[in-house]
């Protein structure tokens, strides 16, 4: 599919969609789920695809086969909610819509205001299964997945910080519980809790634990635990467009 023409009309539709998403996410209390949708559509990206399928963020997560993968359980709810906004703004690509939903989810929960850059094209071709990080695995797996996207060790820690928002659900991931004491607030408390070790009532996935066990990852965790993600965006590697890879805005998930 062709990339959208990002003209004045398209930008106006983006702003209208942003307002509609804000109202929708607020009324449905679904910010963590929308952030997870944005991340899972983006995290299939391959900077150097061998089979020609680069992956997201390209809206392909709406494809039934991809949506039904175990890593994406529960995201059908977010996809269906986004259809309400898509119906009002049909010119906007799904790829842009899902990432915009992630932007709004961060903003509405107290995170930074992000200068959204539109222009992503849709794809009906889903990448191979297994590209999204597996929460049960360790540091080498995280590096394999994130390096494939052209990201660094610092990016791994930064994006893992999205777990500050939301909680895991047993029927979706096999894990249950929130990562922080205020799971509806986007801040740096995820990193603070990581350094505390095990805490009653709070979740730490295997992929969370390796962030403090691995000395390279831990250095960044300690840094981000000391400063607010809201006021020190540049210090932790988040630009005004969040983390950008080949003009794609990448977001992490809290679910």
Automatic annotation (TrEMBL):
Domain Plant heme peroxidase family profile as annotated: residue spans: 31-255
Mind listing the GO molecular function terms for this protein?
heme binding; L-ascorbate peroxidase activity; metal ion binding
Query: Is Lipid biosynthesis one of the keywords UniProt gives this record?
Result: no
Q: Which cofactor is essential here? A: heme b
Q: Which InterPro entries does this entry report, sorted A to Z?
A: Ccp1-like (IPR044831), Haem_peroxidase (IPR002016), Haem_peroxidase_sf (IPR010255), Peroxidase_I (IPR002207), Peroxidases_AS (IPR019794), Peroxidases_heam-ligand_BS (IPR019793)
**What's the Enzyme Commission number for this chain?**
1.11.1.11
PANTHER family, A to Z = L-ASCORBATE PEROXIDASE 3, THYLAKOID LUMENAL 29 KDA PROTEIN, CHLOROPLASTIC-RELATED
- What name appears for this protein in its UniProt entry? L-ascorbate peroxidase
The organism encoding this protein is Prunus persica
């Amino acid at each position: 599919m062709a990339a959208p023409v990002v003209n004045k009309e398209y930008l106006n539709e983006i702003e209208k969609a942003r307002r509609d998403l804000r109202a929708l996410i607020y009324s449905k209390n679904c910010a963590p789920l929308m952030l997870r949708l944005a991340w899972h559509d983006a995290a299939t990206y391959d900077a150097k695809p061998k089979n020609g399928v680069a992956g997201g963020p390209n809206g392909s997560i709406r494809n039934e086969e991809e949506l039904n993968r175990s890593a994406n359980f529960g995201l059908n709810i977010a996809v269906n909610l986004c259809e309400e906004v898509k119906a009002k703004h049909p010119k906007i690509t799904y790829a842009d819509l899902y990432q915009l939903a992630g932007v709004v989810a961060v903003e509405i929960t107290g995170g930074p205001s992000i200068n959204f850059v539109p222009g992503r094209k849709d794809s009906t071709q889903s990448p191979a299964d297994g590209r999204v990080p597996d929460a049960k695995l360790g540091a080498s797996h995280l590096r394999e997945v994130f390096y494939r996207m052209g990201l660094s060790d610092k990016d791994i820690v930064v994006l893992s910080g999205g777990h500050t928002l939301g909680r895991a659900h047993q029927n979706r991931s096999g894990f249950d519980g929130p990562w922080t004491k205020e799971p509806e607030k986007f801040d740096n408390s995820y990193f603070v809790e990581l350094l505390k070790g095990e805490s009653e009532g709070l979740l730490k996935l295997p992929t969370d634990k390796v962030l403090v066990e691995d000395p390279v990852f831990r250095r960044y965790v300690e840094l981000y635990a000391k400063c607010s993600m809201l006021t020190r965006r540049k210090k932790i590697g988040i630009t005004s467009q969040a983390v950008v890879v080949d003009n794609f805005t990448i977001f992490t998930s809290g679910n």
